[in-house]
Amino acid sequence: MEALTERYGLTCYGTRLGDYRVLLVPDTDAENPRNWDNFGTLWFRPTEYNHNRYQNYGDEGLGDIDSAWLYFTDESPAMQVFGSVRLAHVAFARWLRMVKGATHIKSVSVYEHSGITIRYQKAEFVERPVDWGHGSFDGLIFDTEEGRQDIADPPEAKVREWLTGELETTKAWMEGEVYFVITEIHNETCDDGSDCFDPDCDAWSEVESMGNYYGEKYAEGDAYQQLATLFLTGN
Ligand SMILES: [Zn+2]
What we know:
Layout: E1 2-7, E2 10-17, E3 20-26, E4 41-44, H1 63-72, H2 79-82, H3 85-100, E5 105-112, E6 116-119, E7 139-142, H4 145-148, H5 156-174, E8 178-186, E9 204-214, H6 216-233
Antiparallel strand pairs: 1-2, 2-3, 3-8, 4-7, 5-6, 5-7, 8-9
Helix pairs in contact: 1-3
The structure holds zinc ion.
Zinc ion is lined by residues 186, 190, 192, 196, 198, 201, 203.
């Protein structure tokens, strides 16, 4: 796809086929996917140094997890018992497993890259707190007993897939990669007809608009399909 036109001051990528075209229009008002009824829990740790700046990106109502974190880590006298950050993390992970029923725990980091985004290891789920990176993570995503209750015994591979999918969706939202896929037709009112290559020609009118594509690859995949269908069948 190529940069075709602008909407609301934002570049829209798209492609043309005959008298039809498809545009990916950024949805600047997309809902934070963490407000949905998710399978996993995305938690960002409360710390003094970041003034809880990332907590807004995680799920709401995780005060009990915040409390457990503060209890187990170096911001609490309990740290004197554990003696090291690593052991405190081990104890916290055990708490997540026992109390929340977590079976998969994955660390997440937030960083600035023309806006804010998150980073995580794609392929592997980190099972051992020692691999969380010695404290250099901002949050965790994990499954819970509660999240699994509607799904009878989901296979381990599915649990990993769902958690990774949720991170991809959240990442897309944070990076502003949520789109409408809009198909348009170039009407006969334009004198240049099929020879018109003005992307801002008045003769373009909308055929269909579909929203809620979190992630460019989903939007693009569907966009090509819709364009092909429109081109072949005319509706
Ligand atoms: Zn035209």
